[in-house]
Amino acid sequence: MTSTQNNPAIALTIAGSEATGGAGAQADLKTFQQLGVFGIVALSCIVSFDPKQNWNHRFVPVDAQVIADQLEAIGAAYGPDQLDTVKIGMLGTPVTIDTVAQSLASRDWKNVVLDPVLICKGQEPGAALDTDQALKREILPKASFVTPNHFESLSLSGMSEISTVEHLKEATQRIYDASGAVVLAKGGVRLAGAEAVDVFYDGSTLEVLRAPKVGEVAVSGAGCSLAAAVTAELAKGATPLDAAHAAKDLVTRAIQSRVSSHAPFDAVWQGAS
Ligand code: PXL
């Protein structure tokens, strides 16, 4: 059945569920909706924090065939003329990465926004080595836009330290040179100072995006929402730089409007503005 009465921009996120609703696919969909974009999800994994174990991550990958099935259904429902923009969030295992890479290759995408989620807050970096390598090998070359956080910028740039804005600028240039993707690297609370600084680089324009820091503690879903907002704006036809600015604005407001719970971290709220 086709109806052309409504014609919103459409964006897909391939992401994990984070059950408490702060991060992952839930954050992506809320962000898409807030920016007037019709959101679609292919679920890659399910994360359920464990309140009995210090809110550690319990991670369950979605079966590879089920991921492929979701992407088959989505691709059949929405042709490339309707859906040309995809965000990739937490994939979590090399098998999932393989599956997603194969599905992505079955059509041309205008915008592939990669939030290169390696580990979540509180996880051990070493646990993600094989995932890290598979992501770099199989997904990063397909990305047109990448949004690394501090830890991911270290990994993708090969730098041993990023503690100043100058370091972060160098990281964006290195990541661009290695990937060809537009880079929006997040300083967040990891860089000292009164401002939350992100650096944008597209091969020619290097721009520092600044907003007053809202506290010194990371808020759940900020990174997911930033990449989702970039995705939504690109789906609507914005330039990468305009998308980055709009995303920074949305996330700043979403952090200011954050929601507290009995979990040890607050969650962003995109809907307040
Ligand atoms: O914020 C990174 C992230 C992304 N996706 C899922 C997550 C998390 C962190 O908890 O659970 C599903």
Largest pleated sheet: 9 strands, mixed
Low-pLDDT residue intervals, each spanning 5 or more residues? none
Assign an overall shape: globular
* CATH homologous superfamily descriptor: Ribokinase
Provide the structure class. alpha/beta
Q: How do the helices and strands follow one another from N- to C-terminus? A: EHEEHEHEHEHHEEEHH
* Structure annotation, total helices: 8
Mean pLDDT: 94
State the distance separating the first and last CA atoms: 35 Å
Using only C-alpha atoms, the radius of gyration works out to 17 Å
Q: Name every ligand kind in the structure.
A: 3-hydroxy-5-(hydroxymethyl)-2-methylisonicotinaldehyde
Helicity range = 25-40%
Task: Please report which band the strand proportion falls in: under 5%, 5-15%, 15-25%, 25-35%, 35-45% or over 45%.
Answer: 15-25%
Number of domains: 1
- The number of E-state strands comes to 9
From the 3D structure, determine the CATH topology.
UDP-N-acetylmuramoyl-L-alanine:D-glutamate ligase
Task: Report the CATH C-level class.
Answer: Alpha Beta
Please identify, by name, the CATH architecture: 3-Layer(aba) Sandwich
Across the major sheet, the strand order is: 3-2-1-4-5-6-7-8-9
